[in-house]
Structures are given as C-alpha cells and as structure tokens.
Specification:
- Strand 4 and strand 5 form a beta hairpin.
- The strands form two sheets. Strands 1-3-2-7 form a four-stranded mixed beta sheet, covered by helices on one side. Strands 4-5-6 form a three-stranded antiparallel beta sheet.
- Helices cover 20% and strands 30% of the residues.
- The protein has 99 residues and is of the alpha+beta class.
- It starts with 10 loop residues before the first strand and ends with a strand.
Length: 99
C-alpha cells in the first residue's frame, strides 16, 4: 500500500524546482491495479493539459519525501511525465494524479 498522501505529509513545490530533485529508482506503488490506474489518470491529464489547458496535481516522492506540484502535463513516455520547458518526473515515483 502506498504511503499516506494526506495534506500534512505533502509539501508543495514549484514546477521550476523539479529539476533540482533526486529521484530514486524504486517504484512507489505496489500492485498492477494501482500502476494501471496511475497510467490511465496520466493519459487523461495529458488530454486535460493539451486540449483544455487544465492543470493537474501530481503527488510524487523524491529522495527526501512526498511532494506535490500543480501543473500542465504536456506529454507522456513509457517512463516519464513531460511538463513545460522539458521538465520531467519519473512515472515510477508518482503516487497519485489528481485531475
């Protein structure tokens, strides 16, 4: 089960600060169902960002703890979420995508 992503445990970061974070190589979710749900939500977030210019909250974990960023998702690869200005977040470090 994923760690709690309650508001008290999550710190907000700016998109521009993401390039300075270190991301471990371990997957943060357990179970194929949770991983598939994350992928589906990310795909919906790409449509939201590109078609409607809507922002998405991404709850993720770097080497220091759980954080969140609210931003447009412009693209998606097998391994990364692509934000504006070429900023990326590894998909395996994302706990939750809030549309």
């Amino acid at each position: 089960m994923a760690p709690s992503t309650s508001a008290a445990a999550v710190s907000s970061v700016q998109k521009e600060d993401l390039n300075h974070l270190k991301f471990p190589s371990e997957e943060v979710l357990t179970g194929t169902e949770a991983i598939e749900k994350r992928r589906k939500n990310l795909e919906q977030a790409v449509v939201l960002g590109n078609t409607y210019k809507g922002k998405t909250k991404i709850v993720f974990e770097d080497g220091a703890g759980i954080k969140q960023v609210e931003t447009h998702i412009w693209g998606l690869t097998d391994k990364r979420v692509i934000l504006k200005q070429g900023i990326v977040i590894p998909i395996h470090r994302i706990h939750e995508v809030k549309l």
